[in-house]
Write a structure and sequence with these properties.
The chain has about 260 residues and is mostly helical. The protein has 10 helices and 5 strands.
């Protein structure tokens, strides 16, 4: 009887070891597979490589989001995979461009308008008179600052504006939409950029013939999502998400190749 029990214990232990080994191999294979795809995107060389790389990096994040959150709609999955598996510290910072659109639409809210004016003044001060400088995200309004000026009557109205739509992570998703659905992104100016591996705003100059128009308006900014940032984000999400699959003993391939239809 003792020998039989020992046999069953040994058999169970063997099955556990085999299961763990199989799962580790699956996750390892998955990580190698997707990282190879990511590196192939990084190696693209063409006259329009910036547009092509941005489009494919966004699609890559979509594929990871689908593998991790197969039951969520595309937008929620995309946002969740970045929030849960990246260390993007400025993802919740408020976008002054989105804030200005909201404030212009609702000018009766003076406190909201005041925060918008403050944010724009800071951007203009950093952007410089001729618009070749960049504006980093760390000085943008925080969600806490937005909460202070957020109209109280919007809190109880389900049809009121959503403050989450003003955050940087939503701006990234909006960029993803213009790329994936319209195959376009805003044409960036040819002026030199500093620290172009991080997301930033740039005040820019408009060209008219051979002359440069220098009478810039405050709303002449663009939000730049550099391909270097997207590559780093994709890599970080991949590495952190595959750790999750390993810890949860989940086969990532099953969800990665699940039926299309989360849109």
């Amino acid at each position: 009887m003792k020998e039989i029990n020992q046999y069953h214990i040994t058999l169970i232990e063997t099955q556990i070891i085999e299961h763990t080994t199989i799962n580790e191999q699956l996750v390892s294979d998955f990580k190698d597979y997707v990282l190879e795809r990511l590196e192939n995107i990084n190696l693209i060389e063409s006259p329009d490589q910036e547009l092509q790389k941005k489009l494919l990096y966004m699609a890559y994040l979509d594929s990871l989001a689908g593998a991790r959150y197969p039951s969520k709609r595309n937008k929620k999955a995309f946002i969740s995979v970045i929030k849960d598996y990246s260390t993007w510290e400025h993802s919740d910072r408020i976008c002054p461009l989105a804030l200005k659109k909201l404030s212009d639409k609702h000018p009766q809210y003076t406190e909201l308008k005041g925060l918008t004016k403050k944010a724009y003044n800071q951007m203009v001060a950093q952007g410089g008179k001729f618009g070749a400088a960049q504006v980093n995200l760390h000085g943008l309004p925080s969600k806490d600052e937005l909460d202070v000026v957020w109209p109280q009557d919007w809190n109880d109205d389900p049809n009121s504006p959503n403050r989450e739509n003003l955050t940087q992570i939503i701006q990234l998703y909006n960029c993803r939409n213009s790329l994936v659905h319209s195959f376009q992104h805003r044409k960036e100016s040819p002026y030199p950029r500093r620290n172009s591996n991080v997301i930033h705003y740039r005040q820019y100059m408009r060209a008219k013939g051979d002359s440069i128009i220098t009478d810039l308006k405050h709303d002449e900014f663009e939000l730049v999502h550099p391909i270097q940032f997207l590559y780093k984000l994709c890599t970080e999400v991949t590495l952190n998400m595959t750790k999750f699959f390993l810890e949860e003993e989940t086969n990532p391939f099953e969800r990665y190749y699940d039926d299309f239809g989360r849109y």
